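Entry 14. Structure prediction run on the chain below.
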Amino acid sequence: MFRKNEQHRQQSFFSGENLLPKKLQIKLMGSWAETFYREVFCRIVESIFAVLYSDEASRPNVPINVLVGLEILKSGYGWSDEELYEQVCFNLQVRHALGMCDLSLEVFTLRTLYNFRRRVREYAEETGINLMQQVFEQVTDEHLEAVQLATGWQRTDSTQVLSNLAQMTRLELLVSVLQAVHKQLPESVQEHWGVRWAQYLEKRAHQVCYKIPAAEVESHAVTIGQELCAVEVELAQAAPESEALTLIRRVLEEQYECGAEGTVTLRPPKEVGADSLQSPHDPEATYRVKGSKRYRGGYVANVSETAEPDNPVQLITDVQVEPNQADDALLLEQSLDNQAARGIEINKMTGDGGYTGPRSEAACERHKVELRATRMRGGHSASDRWGWEEYTWQVEEDGTPLNVTCPRGCQAVLRPSRAEGRFIARFDAECCAECPFLGQMCRVQDRARVGPTLYVQQRAIQVARQRQQLCPEDTPIRAVVESTVRSLKRAFPGSKLPVRGLIRARMMLYPAALMVNLRRLHRYFTKKDQKATQEEAFSLSLFKTALYRRLRHIHRRLFEFLSAIEYRRATVSPS
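Output returned:
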């Protein structure tokens, strides 16, 4: 049964904090723990999680804001579950952050936290709603309003994170798949296939593959493919909706070419897609090469944060987590859609070249957002020819090309070609006659019958106009978000998450983003309090100085008055 936690608002007079010396009490109230309690813990709307509990009268739940707070601290500090439990039991700051100031209160067991995670994950699988994401958005929206931050200008960047998977060779992957399938087989046939696959089941996948000579690797891979085909036939009749059958069919489709006569051939590595299975323990993790680095079995996290120069502090406003094959343009589209649904107004978005392209352009146009890219996706033209961005393009409001002007100043009208999306411009022969770049640097071709002609695609015009509108001056602004990305992953050494699965990855990264915001807010409030203290001290100093000067003035006037009286007494003769 769901019940809200209001006990933390009525602290006991004999709580452990009140037994501390006065200096330590002041230090505790100025630490991150008080900021966490005030700005995160007290803002968590526990009713969001009511859907996880029964409506019938039963034992009440462990406080939701405590469980969620623990998840945030775990993601922010990188603690293991055992370390997290020790912290909540014996760390006074952690207990203060979670509203558990009374040391006599019993602490729940770790099993309670495990069950809570399982319920959140299962609810996300059933409904597609991640409750930890809702907590992040609800608390962040309140922060934006409380600090009165402007969100019109934002910046964004993405980063790669790895699932908690071992790096495997192709054969190790196939052996681990065979082992996973064996565990999921019905008990009636598990023993039969266990005897048949004994050489692959006796040890872990890397231990099995270590003993196989390099010359026999391909033959063992083919043998495993044949065994998967054989068990697929049996499962298709016995358990057509089993997870094992889904796993088998995916691996056969990605790694093998199955003939009509039951023949199995191993696909060349180049034919295996990047979205292929990287581990049977995390089917959603994918493979990606970015730059010179390879990310095998991971996800991509996209971060958007405020970038208004007048803001006293910048906060993360939105986070997306997807398989690492997801394009940055897709992540930008998701961010704009999500923030628009939350009522966050965005006018400008600064990002790198990965966020350019038709999809992101359409999303920015739909939300009336100016995309201020510092670079452009794709290469430049060859050095021996002018790029399309060297030409001046005049278009209508809907993007339809009208005129083009070459770098030498010759102008021509753009007319649609027979092919869709292509345009032709006929230049004046006299204008181009004396041009030394015609047929060389210039893209205009000298046609015998029709004269100088330019052939161009509408997409090339769009890209050229975007290159002309790039904002390299935003590079310092965009670079700051890279620090935010590092802060997001600071608790995950090597960018490797301690969990598997897309849902669990999101359940880790949303609290981590909330912790980044908390640290920034704590620094902001600390500086604000210090400034207020200094101003108060300065005002008090001014008051003391003014008071001292006034008292000296009064003292001087009083002394003069008394001196005048004494003088009169001395000068007046007695009658």
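The chain has a mean pLDDT of 90.
Filed with the rest of this week's runs.
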